[in-house]
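Supplementary Methods. Inverse-folding protocol.

Structures were first reduced to a discrete structure-token string of length 180. This string, shown here, constituted the complete conditioning input.
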């Protein structure tokens, strides 16, 4: 058995020789798989532009399924999906253009982690050491940067506290539990 060629786009392997590889790379299935792969990385503005040009697919609107799938030349997006996509594109554009948003998003995660470590070390040290920077930033900053809030399944240590704060349970020397 000779060498085998594996195509990442199609998730297929076959005997590697010039004829088989050329036949595969020029095949319709490979071109569809390659297009589908690169469509995952398309800009949302480009997707919106393409979908607005297309007419709605009648078969998809009537039955909810189309025989052509992603290769259909008509749009499979509902009006609500188009509206949401348009709003998302406008939000991205506004964030790029708005200098105030740039300053707020300019606060990097690294800076936040450095400030967090300083606060932790100040709380764990014997004295409550607070410098002027921490006092000035404490009322205005939310504990978690907005970049983290968009991440699903955020670890509990990075989650913002609930509005009323964390409920603490303390056991005294007699085994009684107090919550506050």
């Amino acid at each position: 058995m000779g060498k085998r060629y594996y195509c990442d786009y199609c998730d297929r392997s076959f005997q590697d020789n010039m004829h088989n590889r050329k036949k595969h790379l020029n095949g319709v299935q490979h071109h569809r798989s390659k297009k589908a792969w690169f469509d995952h990385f398309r800009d949302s503005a480009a997707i919106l532009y393409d979908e607005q040009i297309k007419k709605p697919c009648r078969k998809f609107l009537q039955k909810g399924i189309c025989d052509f799938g992603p290769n259909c030349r008509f749009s499979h997006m509902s009006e609500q999906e188009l509206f949401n996509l348009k709003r998302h594109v406008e939000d991205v554009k506004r964030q790029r253009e708005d200098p105030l948003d740039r300053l707020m998003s300019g606060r990097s995660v690294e800076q936040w982690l450095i400030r967090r470590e300083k606060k932790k070390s100040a709380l764990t040290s014997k004295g409550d050491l607070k410098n002027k920077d921490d006092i000035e930033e404490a009322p205005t900053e939310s504990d978690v940067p907005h970049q983290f809030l968009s991440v699903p399944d955020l670890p509990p240590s990075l989650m913002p506290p609930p509005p009323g704060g964390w409920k603490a349970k303390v056991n005294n020397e007699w085994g009684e539990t107090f919550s506050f």
